[in-house]
Specification:
The protein is an alpha/beta fold. Helices cover 41% and strands 19% of the residues. The strands form three sheets. A six-stranded mixed beta sheet has the order 2-1-3-12-4-13. The longest helix has 38 residues.
């Protein structure tokens, strides 16, 4: 103790200050570490149904057409729902665009996959034993449209203005980001393989919009809903001009792996189709997290014949 009027030793003062700093530093580290742990837990919980159930993990695969974290968040309630229905742990696996999700499914590394309509048509030819179970719907219905867009201030007003320009596609398996826009070019008398200066694949729709906004390409193909996603990143529709709109495109085909037993396939299909659009269950499982998906509907292979027609049109002389 230091009595009143007694001179405080410099070493003692320094020691007190050092002790305060150490205590504060340790406290800050512990709080920061706790925050990091919480963040990790949230990310894992969003991608995985958790340890409530035993048994082999049921894996659902999707392609990354939007940022991964966003897709995990949007599908988290569906993952939990399917886990409760199947009484098994369920994991969502988000694949980059260069991974063939249909092959992962066909070879048993996935149990269920959401295949884009174009990917489904190609996969069904290669693996006829894929089990088509359902398709999802959104506020726009059971199908959607794609846009070919340019920067509003670029002077590009129609598809023919893209001749000799650089164009951004999403991926070779994307319907709205590749197949249907190529049909639009053909319909306008353009050869997308010869009349464009160069083409590039961006991996997802938001990346295409970002590349276009920053001048990385002169035109891009995206699904119409990306403009609502783009608002979160400062990409308002006013920054772009729509050059053309595709035909309506059927939504993703949810397929089960060929190696699953019939009883499993039936149970998964029933669980998905129970989430009928506008039903109380669908609102609880899907709409509660502002998911783009509002429900699931039965679907048959012929519902994707419109995609096959586009394929044939592009292959025709």
């Amino acid at each position: 103790l230091i009595r009143p009027g007694q001179k405080k030793p410099a070493g003692l003062i320094f020691g007190i200050l050092l002790l305060v700093a150490l205590v504060g530093g340790v406290g800050f580290w512990l709080l920061n570490r706790a925050g990091q742990d919480d963040k990790v837990k949230v990310e894992v919980a969003a991608a995985d149904s958790g340890p409530e159930y035993d048994g082999p993990v049921f894996r659902i695969g999707i392609s990354r057409f939007l940022p991964k974290a966003q897709l995990i968040k949007e599908h988290s309630y569906l993952v939990r729902y399917l886990s409760d229905q199947l009484k098994r742990p369920v994991k969502l696996v988000v694949h980059e665009d260069y991974v063939d999700v249909s092959q992962e499914l066909a070879e048993g590394r996935l149990d269920l996959a959401a295949l884009s309509s174009y990917n489904y048509v190609a996969a069904k030819r290669r693996w006829p034993r894929l089990h088509l179970l359902a398709s999802h719907v959104t506020a726009s219905g059971a199908s959607y449209e794609g846009f070919v867009v340019a920067r509003a201030n670029s002077g590009i007003r129609q598809l023919s203005d893209l001749k000799g320009k650089i164009f951004c596609y999403v991926s070779p398996t994307s319907a709205s980001g590749y197949l249907y826009p190529r049909a639009l070019f053909r319909h306008m008398g353009m050869d997308p393989d010869k009349d464009l200066k160069a083409s590039r694949f961006t991996g997802d729709h938001l990346n295409s919009l970002q590349a276009l906004a920053k001048g990385g390409c002169d035109g891009a193909a995206v699904f119409t809903g990306i403009f609502f996603e783009g608002r979160k990143y400062g990409f308002t529709p006013e920054k772009f001009s729509v050059l053309a709109t595709t035909d309506r495109i059927p939504y993703d085909a949810y397929c089960a792996a060929p190696n699953l037993k019939d009883a499993e396939v039936k149970k998964i299909g029933e669980a998905l189709r129970a989430l009928a659009p506008d039903s109380k269950l669908a609102r609880k499982v899907l709409v509660g997290i502002n998911s783009r998906i509002t429900g699931f509907v039965p679907v048959k292979d012929s519902d994707y014949n419109s995609v096959r027609k586009i394929e044939k049109y592009l292959d025709a002389p």
